[in-house]
């Protein structure tokens, strides 16, 4: 974008500055002539030691600029530059001194980038040294020791000319024993924006302030009525704790003119932490979460920070639009997840933050777009896409406004790449942060001076800035707001700004999409696994009496599976998806058939019970249990080969379902029990068991009947014999004298040994009672009145 700058209307340098520079050149001429007459190599050089000529690249002394205040000075200010110098050579540096040098005005935005890349190159353009007392001297710099410095100089002494960005160099010069003359040993270049008066036309700047995190919740919840959420770790608590990344984003962004860009998943996760929650420990157990007050404090501070400010909400979980466009659109159901992630935004954000969010914007990873990404981005209702200038490039000598139509009623809001990227990388060191701030301000002012027309510019930093990056962003933005060339603007207003007719409106083809970004995308296998999990959920939810207890947490978990935060974390993404699917499988298995062993049937018909177990906390219904005989010629279920019965089981209970069977032949028959949903889809694993049929045949019945008849006849004969014997005893011996007597114990003797024992025992038990000849003698022994021994059967 805009490599050349147009500085129409800028003022010329004052005559005093021209005279001083001319004098410096004249004074340096004799010295230059003397240097040209020096021999080609000194003894030290010949010995392989340091060369008197300045080597290319960084010098032997590192110069770090830790602070530059004010970042954008105006008339009457005093500029203070502080930092350290470190001797990285092997020899001590003597007679060292730190000086400030002001270079010429930087004319183009691309020149700023070039100077930033070579900020410590001692062979580059040095600029004019600020003479006088504005220096700091060091008698000796010991190798490896960092020495601090601080130089303050009135801005008037810098001899700055017209409005623009000037190169400011901090140099370290000195001598070594091998080269005992004063020479440049180290430099650090930075930029000094100079706009002392209010600009006639200010640049309208939109700065996106993202509140995005990784996924900290899965789908697991407690079995209680409140469904206590289970967090995968306590990393979110660390981020919102004092000094944490998200705590810094809120505290630093409060009071700045930014557009807050939030992921509803982050808000929902912190909101869940304000109540009872559990945390999954490393050993697989859960422990109570203890950061409720911390979560409440962070949300309260965020609510205060966004009050009256523009809040742009991403779809729930911040889905990766590029991955979805390139690898997911051909997988059934993938786009429906994006729509669901968009549909829940309003309720989530407005309920928690008490502000109405703007849901018109889609933000692909790093603003890289192609036609398929734009199509996916707008499929869920967004009509504006946040792109970036290095993706939607312009071939102009200036930077156009951010908004531009790209067809189909869609507006691309193109973020400025040169202002969006300075805050990347490691900014934990103060020197790196200071350079990033000054580079950002330099790009902003140079952009504003390109034309006399007002333009709207958007800054889109990385999604999850570190603490150091966030602090640098806040410092730069505060300096920008305190400057005289820019004013804050909401993202919605930037999107409505009049497009520049010369700006590029053609979305680049997929063939030029950055390779490094494509390598980080979620693969097709990820979307296939998400679709498989969704299919299992669809089959499961139809049997539930309270579907929301399962559908909602799993739906949000699948939104998180598509998150942009998984870029560069492929192994962690696979583990997260596997955990979600495994957890769902475990819940589905909570409703199942109990295994059965072999069942025996004796007779032509019988009932077979099959038990359905429900280990869920809620009831299940709309299930059919089908029992099928694999050998219906031997064993029928009902009137056919199978029978179905409806099943409804309360939570935490089991239910036995009985099926009527009929046997036609003896032997084994395989039977299969299977649960089905009402639409005929199998649910869970089948249970297979054998039924052993032992049918009672007519021959066996005849044998049993004959034996029973013989027992009846034998009993009747014994009864008649005893009656006759009793009659003879009553008639006396005289009546039986003439009758033939059978030998004792013969088969015809009515008083056998067993009968006599029985009669004697009976007579003893009835001692003293009048004998009744007509009463039959008892056929069992008298029961004992003594207590039963161990193992003895007692009649009840």
TrEMBL record:
Gene3D superfamilies, per database record: Immunoglobulins
TM segment ranges: 700-719
Keywords assigned by UniProt, alphabetized: Membrane, Transmembrane, Transmembrane helix
Annotated region (Disordered), positions in chain: 727-796
Protein name listed in UniProt: DUF6049 family protein
Biased composition (Low complexity): 728-745
InterPro entries: DUF6049 (IPR046112), Ig-like_fold (IPR013783), TonB_box_CS (IPR010916)
Amino acid composition bias (Basic and acidic residues), ranges on this chain: 748-759
């Amino acid at each position: 974008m805009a490599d050349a700058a147009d500085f129409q209307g800028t003022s010329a340098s004052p005559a005093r500055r021209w005279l001083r520079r001319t004098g410096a050149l004249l004074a340096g001429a004799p010295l230059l002539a003397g240097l040209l007459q020096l021999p080609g190599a000194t003894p030290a050089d010949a010995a392989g030691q340091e060369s008197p000529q300045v080597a290319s690249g960084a010098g032997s002394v590192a110069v770090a600029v830790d602070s530059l205040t004010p970042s954008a000075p105006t008339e009457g200010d005093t500029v203070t530059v502080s930092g350290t110098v470190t001797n990285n050579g092997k020899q001590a540096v003597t007679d060292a001194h730190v000086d400030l040098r002001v270079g010429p005005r930087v004319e183009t935005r691309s020149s700023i980038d070039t100077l930033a890349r070579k900020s410590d190159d001692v062979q580059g353009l040095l600029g004019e040294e600020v003479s006088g007392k504005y220096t700091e001297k060091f008698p000796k710099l010991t190798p490896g020791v960092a020495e601090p410095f601080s130089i303050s100089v009135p801005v008037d002494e810098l001899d700055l000319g017209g409005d623009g960005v000037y190169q400011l160099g901090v140099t370290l010069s000195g001598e070594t024993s091998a080269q005992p003359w004063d020479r440049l040993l180290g430099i650090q270049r930075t930029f000094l924006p100079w706009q002392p008066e209010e600009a006639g036309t200010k640049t309208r700047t939109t700065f996106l302030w993202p509140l995005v995190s990784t996924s900290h919740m899965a789908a697991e919840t407690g079995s209680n009525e409140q469904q206590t959420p289970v967090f995968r770790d306590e990393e979110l608590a660390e981020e919102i704790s004092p000094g944490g990344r998200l705590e810094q984003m809120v505290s630093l962004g409060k009071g700045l003119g930014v557009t807050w860009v939030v992921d509803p998943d982050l808000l929902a996760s912190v909101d869940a932490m304000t109540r009872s929650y559990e945390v999954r420990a490393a050993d697989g157990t859960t422990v109570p979460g203890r950061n409720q007050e911390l979560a409440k404090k962070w949300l309260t501070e965020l609510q205060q920070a966004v009050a009256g400010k523009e809040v742009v909400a991403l779809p729930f979980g911040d889905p990766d639009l590029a991955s979805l466009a390139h690898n997911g659109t051909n997988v059934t159901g993938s786009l429906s997840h994006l729509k669901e992630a968009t549909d829940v935004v309003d309720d989530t954000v407005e309920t928690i933050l008490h502000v109405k969010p703007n849901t018109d914007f889609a933000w692909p990873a790093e603003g890289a777009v192609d036609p398929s990404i734009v199509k996916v981005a707008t499929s869920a209702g967004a009509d504006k896409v946040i792109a970036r200038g290095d993706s939607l490039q312009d071939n102009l000598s200036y930077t156009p406004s951010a908004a531009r139509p790209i067809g189909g009623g869609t507006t691309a809001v193109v973020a400025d790449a040169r202002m969006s990227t300075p805050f990347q990388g490691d900014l934990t060191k103060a020197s790196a942060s200071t350079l990033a701030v000054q580079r950002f301000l330099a790009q902003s002012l140079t952009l504003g001076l390109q034309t006399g027309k007002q333009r709207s510019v958007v800054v889109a930093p990385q999604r999850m800035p570190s603490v150091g990056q966030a602090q640098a962003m806040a410092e730069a933005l505060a300096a920008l707001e305190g400057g005289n060339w820019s004013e804050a603007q909401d993202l919605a207003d930037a999107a409505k700004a009049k497009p520049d007719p010369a700006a590029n409106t053609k979305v680049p083809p997929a063939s030029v999409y950055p390779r490094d970004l494509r390598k980080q995308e979620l693969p097709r296998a990820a979307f296939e696994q998400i679709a498989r999990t969704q299919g299992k959920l669809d089959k499961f939810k139809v049997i539930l009496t309270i579907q929301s207890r399962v559908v909602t947490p799993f739906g949000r978990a699948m939104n998180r599976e598509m998150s942009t935060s998984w870029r560069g974390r492929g192994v962690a993404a696979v583990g997260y998806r596997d955990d979600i699917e495994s957890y769902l499988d475990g819940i589905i298995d909570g409703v199942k058939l109990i295994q059965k062993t072999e069942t025996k049937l004796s007779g032509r018909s019988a009932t077979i019970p099959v038990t359905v177990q429900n280990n869920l906390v809620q009831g299940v219904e709309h299930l059919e249990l089908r029992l099928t005989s694999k050998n219906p010629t031997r064993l029928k279920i009902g009137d056919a080969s199978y029978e179905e019965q409806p099943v409804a089981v309360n939570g935490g209970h089991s239910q036995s379902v009985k099926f009527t069977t009929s046997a036609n032949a003896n032997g084994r028959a395989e039977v299969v029990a299977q649960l089905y949903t009402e639409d005929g889809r199998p649910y869970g694993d089948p249970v297979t068991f054998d039924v052993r049929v032992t049918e009672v045949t007519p021959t066996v019945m005849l044998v049993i009947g004959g034996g029973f008849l013989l027992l009846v006849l034998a009993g009747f004969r014994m009864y008649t014999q005893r009656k006759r014997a009793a009659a003879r005893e009553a008639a006396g011996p005289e009546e039986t004298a003439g009758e033939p007597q059978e030998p004792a114990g013969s088969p015809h003797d009515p008083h056998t040994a067993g009968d006599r024992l029985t009669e004697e025992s009976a007579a003893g038990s009835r001692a003293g009672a009048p004998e009744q000849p007509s009463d039959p003698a008892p056929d069992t022994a008298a029961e004992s009145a003594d207590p039963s021994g161990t193992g003895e059967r007692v009649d009840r």
